Amino acid sequence: MPETAPEAIETLIDGGSFEPAGDAVPAGDPLGYPGYTDALARARERSGTDESVVTGAATIGGIAVEVAAFEFPFMGGSMGAAAGELLARSMERAAARGVPFVLRTATGGARMQEGMASLVQMPKVAGARIELGEARQPFVAVLGNPTTGGVLAGLAALADVTIAERGATVGFAGPRVAERATGRPLSKTSHTAEAALDAGLVDAVVDTSSVPAVVEWILSMLTSRGDDGEHTPPETTGDHLDAWEAFQRVRSPEWPQSVLLAAQMGGPAFELRGDRAGSDDRGCVAFLAQVDGRGALILALQRGVAPGAADYRKAIRCVRIAGRVGLPIVTLVDTGGADPSEGSERHGIAWAIAELFDAILSAPVPVVSVLMGEGGSGGALAFACGDALLAFEETAFAVIAPELAAEILWRDAGRAEEAAKLLKMGAADLARLGICDEVL
Prior knowledge:
By secondary structure, the protein is an alpha/beta fold. Helices cover about 40% and strands about 20% of the residues. The protein contains 18 helices and 16 strands. It has helices at about 5-10, 35-45, 80-95, 115-120, 120-135, 150-155, 175-180, 195-200, 210-225, 245-250, 260-265, 310-325, 340-345, 350-360, 375-380, 400-410, 415-420, 425-430; strands at about 20, 55-60, 65-70, 100-105, 140-150, 160-165, 170, 205, 270, 285-290, 295-300, 330-335, 365-375, 390, 395-400, 440. Strands 1, 2, 3, 4, 5, 6, 7 and 8 form an 8-stranded mixed β-sheet that branches. The termini are far apart. The mean pLDDT is about 90.
């Protein structure tokens, strides 16, 4: 891994494009901590930097950015008042210039020798991050080794896209502090980048040598706006396919998966992982991709995997990212419904569905939904309530699965075909009722 902040920046950016910000923010000694002034002088001499953070302007893949990187040799990359001010100014410049902000961390967290003057930098940098979001500019974070404490909880965890360098220590409390506080040894996998990925806390774990290419790829998708030229509308149909026959088709193993369609429609894509609350369920798969040359967020439901609360919370997180940076959203709907299990109830499935309705209906970007298989109940509708709903002619959308509808209506699941026809579940019925905009 890069040893210093300048090295980290040079590996990320286009060669020779870095322009240091030149902010003069001298570190103080608010506590009069014994020997702190001398320790700062030694840190400056040893690292060759004035503070634990280096900031400036650069380009990555030809895209103008503001970049900030932590200098771990400077007092463990700790964030004191001066470092917090440098980070806040860097994000504010990104907002004012209308460019993305890229952060590479290597830090132990707050600087002990400055006490609360250090800790209050957490809300300071979080406030600057809000300003960046209001300017609709992306924030990409690269978690180096280590990334712990107030820098993770106050800033890096607020990134739109987060990648961790393979082998990095990642956690709120550092491993030694965690063991001391709990009185118990940690597992071998605790506080690792890989554990963070498994828990849905980061989007990817990447070899250090691959980080620059991945960051460039992410920025290209987050910033591409395509063109506003004329586009040929899709062919539509008024054909009526029997609703029960539609259910049989879309439930067939041969019916195409929405995730595969997402990969085809968007070309190379970057998956956004996890709900940032400890889970990365696979009922909903989220991608950043380019659709017709325009960056977009794609949310694809996986047939055969009933989405749980973590899937809806992942979708909510991603919808908010898209709204913040101005990406249109495409949802691909194919699910028999949300997970109705006891565990799903315990994790708040109904609340998560309600929050996704709210997120999509309030998203400040276009939302296009495609019913490409089975739509089951409110669990599917939460992904299909955007600005336009398109449906393949072979698809069906039901208030409840026809077998369950028959059970409720007649206590006879064997009458599922009759229920499907009576409740008019086919795509053409959706169009006639004014629920879908086009049948494809």
